[in-house]
Amino acid sequence: MRPAPLPATPARPFDFSYVDTLPHQDVDGCRLYLGKPATPPPAAQPRLLFVPGAYHGAWCYANYLQYCDEHGIACAAVDLAGHGALAPDPGLLRLTVPDLARQVLAAFDALPGPTVLVGHSLGALLVAWCATQRTPAGLILLAPSPPGNLPGAKALPPKPVDQVCAPPADEEIRSRFAGTPEDADVSAIVARLCDESPGVLNDRYLLRVPVDPARQRAPGLCIEAGRDTPDRHPEGQDRAVADFLGLDCQRLDDAPHCMMYAAGWERSMAAIHTWFRSTFN
User: Fold this and answer.
1) Number of folded domains in the chain?
2) pTM of the predicted model as reported, rounded to 2 decimal places
3) Is 3 contained in some domain?
4) Which domain holds residue 269?
5) E strand or H helix at 76, and its extent?
6) Which segments constitute the AB hydrolase-1 domain (predicted)?
7) Rounded to an integer, what distance in angstroms lies between the CA atom of residue 218 and that of residue 231?
8) Per the domain annotation, does 237 fall within a domain?
9) Residue 73: is its pLDDT beyond 90?
10) What pLDDT is attached to residue 11?
11) CB within 8 A of 183, min separation 6: which ones?
12) What is the residue-averaged pLDDT of the chain?
């Protein structure tokens, strides 16, 4: 299988405006953005449903969504409660991972035909859990947060529970999220990030969300970001997640945590497309 083609459009790492052009529908507290494929996808080909992680909304997948539309791949992305266009939300403080997981299931159920679940970071934990409650056509994890029952997983310091958590500062966005130089303009990212629920973060940090590997039977791919931070993604953890859930694993050495919008996002999308074609064509 030859590698998937790179995007016809130039790399636009911090231009998220494409998502604003897509039709959307509200489903059980979340918002689904629906792709507009330039050519009709094959009837039997599944759809990709992109689920964002902490602080992010569907906007973070703008490059992937445009790529899919240009290459005739059915796709959708979701804003969960209190995130993306649904922020701010007065109920954000009370949200937990199970609350968001139920919304992912609602989005999955609202889409016709077979669907591949794709999640980034905390969103990867959400879709991994959802894959034990439904039967997706596939499962793709990007820089995944580990299941709480992953052998060897280490907890992180919890957040105070009495206030919402502000997004990371510009310095962390540059170094961890986007992997840019210290003087890079990240204002387009800052403008779209939203506050996060301490309950959601603590569910991940304190390893309170187990995933039963025996109930996850979908084929899939885990993509490791080689430039991720070792506190949240110690060496070998992402591959251990892949092995735990029965997925293939690929490491992108130059990718920072938010590989879907950092410079070089094309490489992660090409890896997804190559896996997609080899699995469903």
Assistant:
1) 1
2) 0.95
3) no
4) 17-280
5) strand 75-79
6) 48-261
7) 29
8) yes
9) yes
10) 47
11) none
12) 95
